[in-house]
Amino acid sequence: MKTYRIEKPKIVIIGGGTGLPVILKALRNESADITAIVTVADDGGSSGSLREMIKVAPPGDLRNVLVSLSDMPKLYEDLFQYRFKKEDEFLADHSVGNLIIAALSEMRGSTYEAIQILSKIMHVEGHVYPVSEEPLTLHAKFKDGTLLSGESKIAKARKPIDHVFVTNSENNELPKASRKVVNAIEEADMVILGPGSLYTSILPNLMIGEIGEAICRTAAEVIYVCNIMTQKGETEHFSDAEHIQVIHNHLGQEFVNTVIVNDQEVPSEYLNASDDADKLDQVTHDQVGLEEEGCSIISTDLIQLRDGGVYHDGEKVVDEIFKLLKVKRS
């Protein structure tokens, strides 16, 4: 009797921030060959201070992605994610995981190697790659002609952004993609962008020349998971179509095949929740605008309300991804 092996779909997901781990955690429960490509342009908080002190790629987003794909016991996860108290002086606000990644990066002389070692130790399901093997600096050119450098500073300016670009933080040259990243994109069945901050979590990855080119030429279905809420200093008053327009304009061509958007109304008490909140209003839906960008549209309820905020429900997003995958494979 012959037995046939059904190959797992190769799914590449690109981004950073809090949105990426939500989708990855749900995706880990499915039968898929997962590759996470993670931004290294963060220069705020614990990640920012470590990249300055030790000259390593910022570890925070990588830490959260490792945890989302790991099956380690809850106590180990809690220890890895533990953040020292503000009154702990030198260690204040640093997470144990960030310190471990920084230490292993220094020991091996490479954040890329550190992440591969930790992936084995933490029993990670899939592959985790920093988008570049060197820390990156994000630059924003605003529509008033001014320029600002530093991921943590850009949104605070609260000015309309014309475009962003990245440079290698060490020598200010154009950055290169990490090893295996381009091949993963080219060989994927699906490439997923987002959810995450448009200008500071998604676009920094696409602005590395080799990566932008690979995404434009891949035969994979390219999916954008649109944010549910607009973000202060980045996408204020944006529609879903405007998110896609910005992405396409940055790469100079239409390459996103499908957009997954939320169609459930956000309760009014979650809108403009506080003066210091980074999320403002609900992203408006522009069906015509998305169609003009050449995108197929999947609209459904994606909302999860928790901890006083509005988040993507990872299970719902992944369910839509696999429905689409089934259609594409039939």
From TrEMBL:
InterPro entries (alphabetical): CofD (IPR002882), CofD-like_dom_sf (IPR038136), Gluconeogen_factor (IPR010119)
Keywords noted in UniProt: Cytoplasm
A Gene Ontology molecular function term of the record: LPPG:FO 2-phospho-L-lactate transferase activity
GO CC terms, sorted: cytoplasm
Pfam families per record: CofD
NCBIfam families recorded: CofD_related
Record-stated family: Belongs to the gluconeogenesis factor family.
Protein name listed in UniProt: Putative gluconeogenesis factor
Organism annotation: Vagococcus coleopterorum
